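WARN no homologs supplied; continuing
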Amino acid sequence: MDIVIRAALEADLEQAGEVTVEAFVGDGHTQPDGSYVELLRDARRRSAEAELYVAVDPADLSRGAAGRVLGCVTFAVGGNPWADIATSEEGEIRMLAAAAASRGRGVGEALVRACVTRSRELGLAGMAFSTRPAMTAAHRIYERVGFRRTPERDWCVRPGVDLLVYSLAF
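OK structure emitted
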């Protein structure tokens, strides 16, 4: 499947928020009634305060439509409020999500690779980001792209929510 990765457009924001909620709640990474769901749904805020990238089907674009959002990811440079673990010389991804119907088609990997490219464009030294231990499908993507576990940077956002860190130096 061909995939186009681009900065989110106004027309993408609602779909991007819903795809993110679908992925995180559907995969059991957050509770449907938890406070984190509203942050996941708020793609408009992520787009305004960081960089939001979407994966769309090029067939939609050829018909003149904005495109069905197949997945999305938030990208921020360390020091940005959306960056939890990255230093000022690193890029960070947050809320990587692929729509359930798009899984297994390379959407997540394409989004991660786009963030690596963006980090390089900005002249950063690398990337670092957090992930939950149970997000094993995402871990496989990160490792295929070249990220490695950085256990000395692991942290706990709150009791019972441990986060693993993956990083990549350029």
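The mean pLDDT is 94.
OK
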